[in-house]
């Protein structure tokens, strides 16, 4: 890919961004981040904490002089992880869902990685200087706080809800809003249900482990028949142990592929929702201004009309950016889900085959033992 | 001791050997356990296939008889009472399930409801005097089956609710298929209800337990379960209860007929053959006999605490302790398996819920390929739910019920030991009575009162019949009879216990193999599911 001077900021290869390590110091997680500039083969490694990611997100939100910024679907940043001991698993699950599970924050790191890759791959956002300094400055840029973006997250205030259902002027957008509402709700539910499945798989694995250990206690060398019985129990113990490992693997596969994918999908649907909401708010603003202009007295009218024109222009820009973003989102979300589904299926297939082989070996061994 | 025979370790059909049939007096060795007292091996548990009531949409089901079982059965004569009967030179014949071949699921049974069940073959050789030490292959065995062998298959099927309301009961069909000459027909079936089974147990127990036999215990009563059925709740839990009970009754009968001396019992024959059985009212808990039983049990418990047996042989003491320890262990294991089953059921329902949520997602999705993939995903999860369901049944019927059965069987073993103690106690009492009378005689001798002396002598020799069954004339002969009884019981108990342990090891082995086979089966189907889904996922554009 040639880097033209007009797109000088497109300097990082999105796919090269990796979070390679994470260390925990009390409450703070520090991430090791490597990425590669497009025009060089050397990787750059920096260390960042969550606040830095937050800073990046806020910087993206608050870019000035970017027409139609509000029409952009911003890649969703996962919530902050609170790894302290006082945070029980249920709390963590509520807060982070799938990202709280897994070994050593693997899923969480993956999610952060995706976030950065999405930002770097976005045709508009990748040009943001903040991204560069985030990725390449050895010093953490998160020191500059207090520059809150123009928009906050969707709050659940009643007023917001009312605005959310405001009827649209454009059919395309009305449809999109409806679909998005459905999809967002459904993917959230699907993610939660998969989380339930994974939790149960883990509980089942634990129960298997418990059973397997109890079987070990049956060993008794008193006499010949006790020995025979003990052998049988130990064999069963081995089998149950294999079952346990199978379940653990299946659960972790679910977690690292489909779980992650559904989680990302669900958060992305939320991001689209936020964008659509911003546009709707602008629409409401425009309509309010229009009404005001109509009612205005002659002397104020010109001013108001000019103002109205400005708002209208803004709104149209937002709408056109939004349209592009929506199309881009549709095709990319299909792709992303496809990759996750393929990855999930492949890894589960491998695990299933692996354990079929293992069970088969156990069966052979059992039969041989039987014939001794 | 009457004829002993060797026991043949029942081979596995795929391991077609290790079928050593022994000569008389030659004990073929199982692995290593050879006790000199090891006599006949009679206790083989004919196992039935656990049934899954769920309808498997795909081919076959978990409970196909991939795991075949071999019955090792010996027709034997044991404990003195039957010593005149079949003094067989025997060898055991391990038998192969007629219906199964091997793991390629040829004998697969499509079980669609709690009606079908597996039959089991118990082969009982009849006075065959050719002891041959031969390793047999499966085919050879099957050939022989049509030859001199006699078989006995029992199945309990077709539970039907008879009557209404609180007087309703479940009636089960007990089908027998046999070539044994002692039965009137070759194939016959009768209908029995649960109390009939309990009645059978009472009768057998009354006759055989004093001899030191280990009597297989019947399935437990369950007020809650039966009430649900009576009330007519047509839900899955009452169907599950009926199925559980049906399978348990079948296993119970198979264990009973696998015990050769029990098989000879006319009550057992009557149970299998006779059309109408007298209603066994003694089995109700609150009936007169029921209460009497409870009182007896309580007094037995007290006795246990007060009898301190003078054990000449340490074997019994240590064995009893072993049995008690093992019972504890098995209870723990059973609890662990129970929790396993519950978690799997939970996984089942969670998977179903997830499947639905994915299906909804797929229906809303616009992109047609993605939408199709998502609905395929929902179907995959659906199939997995069924696999989980069946695995849960496997866990239950193969493992949990096995453990539960053995916990109760160990209780029966303990009863066996207690019976021996009772016999010993009786001996002690007779001995002390004899002693007292002798002392009285000696005193009189001393006191030189000839008339009284004669009286005392008569006393010792007098008939003191306490029960109608007493055949003894004198206290002395009584004592010696009781001594012989005790010896016999001791011997029987020893043999029974050894046989039981062997059987237990074999039983567990069989079940592990069955369990593994079911796991493997599930795993293969899982692999198929994933393989079918992969192209769908890749087709998303």
TrEMBL record, chain B:
GO terms for molecular function: phosphatidylinositol binding. Keywords: Acetylation, Cell projection, Endosome, Golgi apparatus, Lipid-binding, Membrane, Phosphoprotein, Protein transport, Transport. One of its GO terms (biological process) is intracellular protein transport. PROSITE patterns: PX. The keyword Repeat does not apply. It comes from the Eukaryota. Residues 29-41 have a biased composition (Acidic residues). GO terms for cellular component: cytosol; early endosome membrane; Golgi apparatus; lamellipodium. Pfam families: PX, Sorting_nexin, Vps5. SUPFAM superfamilies: PX domain. Residues 150-279 form the PX domain. Residues 46-55 have a biased composition (Polar residues). It is found in: Cell projection, Lamellipodium; Early endosome membrane; Golgi apparatus, trans-Golgi network membrane. InterPro entries: AH/BAR_dom_sf (IPR027267), PX_dom (IPR001683), PX_dom_sf (IPR036871), Sorting_nexin_N (IPR005329), Vps5_C (IPR015404). The keyword Protein transport applies. Residues 1-63 are annotated as: Disordered. It is a peripheral membrane protein. Belongs to the sorting nexin family. This is Sorting nexin-1. It comes from Sinocyclocheilus rhinocerous.
